[in-house]
Backbone:
């Protein structure tokens, strides 16, 4: 029993990580039709900026408020990079899909190379508060606190995103734009501002995933974003492009499936099962769990 | 009186097809001007070019002037804020949003939305505020599409086939509403239902083969059965059945 609980909670921790990456990816694709392969870069920037800040930023550190400050710095860096990418590289290329893919793929490769050139290819120990290395006993299972932190963070982000989409003017514009972008402009709204905003939101969530993923794995390395991005894309497709709620459901399904199958089956089978799930969803329900609606 | 809109030598190519080949016409500053023509002749393309929605794989040239300025090449949201109201074909309400949210989307900073006016025209929209727009009937969706445009002041309304796919009773309701709307703002209307055209339109512009084939008084056009038939391919009384009592047309969308 305790094994099942442990697997469920670590699976949810993984799901939280996927959700943080996938939610932004899904909104960006749903609203702006941009397949952002550079999304993993935002995660890398968040992780490295947090790591850098805890060693160099005055007041920041690996513990207590210093850690919060370091993570905030990482998230801010993620937002900054995401907004710059949108304004400088993506904006001139809207509705030119192939060029977008080339630019974002190139950017993700260049970004990883840049991180490598600056801080080396080896994984570095990630600064993290002492309590995140400990475990909490839940119904007999010793669950790592870092995983619980991820779950809480993802739940807060999910709640905040839904409230934002449901209650704010920009949330309304985004939900409408996911459904019919052209008609939003035909009501006199400059929808490109909403594009920049979803990039900023996606950058923030991905950077948070980078920082908390660093805590979870205990290390930070240049390639981390890329490997998470693959599963995040799968989550987005399974959940339905443009749907935050769909991404949340799909992230939970993928995280749990992966964790349980990898434990009870031969190692690596979990990843295969995730791809199989993707294939089944694409065959039976190509629009994903939630279709192309940014539901709040 | 000077026209509210002057289209001159408008050409639109989309994906290599030369859809409009030098279209010129004017829209009177009051009343309804109707844009007629057979299917596929470029009526919708014309409206979309005016409001800046020519697709990326297409290009528009010529000139479209409103109050002196050329509209061509300006982004859609600016044109709309400048007083061009657009009610698209197939209504295009946001199906996943509530009626109230659809309306709220049209609100603009710096101007008071005219909810009184809209709810006076369409009391139904007030009552159904919390309902999802996707679950409205076709007629109600059309009311919503017109209503959200009327929340702001417009200098010209572009209305594309507002009665398409609606039941006869609803067609009459939509026509009544447009008649009242046209008392305060000029309308450029694309409409296939000739009974509605007869009721609303003062001026008519007929497109054929990518050009303007005829322009003048709508009454005059419809009075001449022979002319109507040769331009529109229908007798003035038998388009899609007898329009005045037409059965529900199959919704093409």
Residues:
């Amino acid at each position: 029993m305790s094994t099942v609980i442990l697997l469920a909670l670590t699976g949810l921790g993984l799901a939280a990580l996927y959700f943080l990456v996938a939610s932004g990816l899904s909104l960006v694709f749903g609203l702006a039709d941009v397949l952002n392969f550079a999304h993993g870069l935002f995660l890398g920037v968040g992780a490295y900026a947090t790591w850098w800040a805890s060693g160099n930023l005055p007041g920041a550190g690996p513990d207590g408020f210093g850690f919060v400050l370091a993570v905030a710095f990482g998230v801010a860096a993620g937002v900054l990079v995401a907004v710059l990418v949108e304004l400088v590289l993506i904006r001139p290329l809207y509705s030119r899909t192939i060029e977008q893919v080339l630019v974002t793929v190139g950017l993700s490769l260049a970004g990883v190379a840049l991180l490598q050139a600056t801080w080396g290819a080896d994984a570095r120990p990630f600064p993290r508060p002492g309590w995140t290395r400990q475990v909490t006993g839940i119904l007999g299972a010793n669950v790592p606190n870092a995983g619980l932190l991820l779950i809480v963070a993802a739940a807060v982000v999910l709640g905040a995103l839904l409230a934002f989409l449901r209650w704010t003017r920009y949330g309304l514009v985004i939900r409408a734009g996911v459904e019919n972008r052209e008609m939003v402009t035909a009501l006199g709204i400059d929808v490109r501002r909403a594009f920049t905003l979803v990039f900023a939101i996606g950058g923030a969530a991905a950077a948070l995933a980078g920082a908390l993923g660093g805590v979870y794995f205990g290390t930070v390395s240049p390639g981390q974003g890329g490997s998470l991005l693959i599963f995040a894309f799968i989550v987005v497709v399974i959940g339905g492009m443009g749907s935050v709620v769909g991404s949340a459901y799909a992230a939970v399904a993928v995280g749990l499936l992966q964790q349980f199958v990898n434990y009870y089956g031969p190692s690596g089978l979990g990843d295969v099962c995730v791809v199989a799930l993707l294939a089944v969803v694409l065959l039976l329900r190509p629009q994903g769990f939630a279709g192309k609606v940014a539901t709040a | 009186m000077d026209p509210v809109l002057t289209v001159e030598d408008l050409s639109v190519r989309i994906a290599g097809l030369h859809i409009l080949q030098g279209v010129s016409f004017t829209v009177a500053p009051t009343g309804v001007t109707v844009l007629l023509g057979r299917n596929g002749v470029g009526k919708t393309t014309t409206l979309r070019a005016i409001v800046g929605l020519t697709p990326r794989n297409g290009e528009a040239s010529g000139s479209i002037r409103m109050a002196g300025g050329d509209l061509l090449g300006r982004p859609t949201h600016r044109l709309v804020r400048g007083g061009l109201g657009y009610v698209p074909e197939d209504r295009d309400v946001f199906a996943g949003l509530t009626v109230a949210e659809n309306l709220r989307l049209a609100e603009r900073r710096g101007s008071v939305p005219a909810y009184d006016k809209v709810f006076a025209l369409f009391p139904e929209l007030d009552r159904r505020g919390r309902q999802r727009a996707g679950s409205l009937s076709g007629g109600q969706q059309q009311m919503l599409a017109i209503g959200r445009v009327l929340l702001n002041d417009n200098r010209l309304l572009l209305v594309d086939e507002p009665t398409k796919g609606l039941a006869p009773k609803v067609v009459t309701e939509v026509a009544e509403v447009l008649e009242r709307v046209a008392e305060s703002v000029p309308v450029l209307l694309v409409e296939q239902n000739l009974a509605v055209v007869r009721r609303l339109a003062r001026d008519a512009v007929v497109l054929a083969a990518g050009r303007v084939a005829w322009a003048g008084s709508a009454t005059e056009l419809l009075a001449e059965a022979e002319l109507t038939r040769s331009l529109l391919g229908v007798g003035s009384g038998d388009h899609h059945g007898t329009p005045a009592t037409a059965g529900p047309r199959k919704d093409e969308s």
